[in-house]
Amino acid sequence: SAVISQKPSRDICQRGTSLTIQCQVDSQVTMMFWYRQQPGQSLTLIATANQGSEATYESGFVIDKFPISRPNLTFSTLTVSNMSPEDSSIYLCSVETGPGELFFGEGSRLTVL
Amino acid sequence: AQSVTQLGSHVSVSEGALVLLRCNYSSSVPPYLFWYVQYPNQGLQLLLKYTSAATLVKGINGFEAEFKKSETSFHLTKPSAHMSDAAEYFCAVSEGGGFKTIFGAGTRLFVKA
Question: What contacts A66, CB < 8 A, 6 or more positions away?
Answer without folding.
Answer: A34, A46, A47, A57, A78, A79, A80, A81
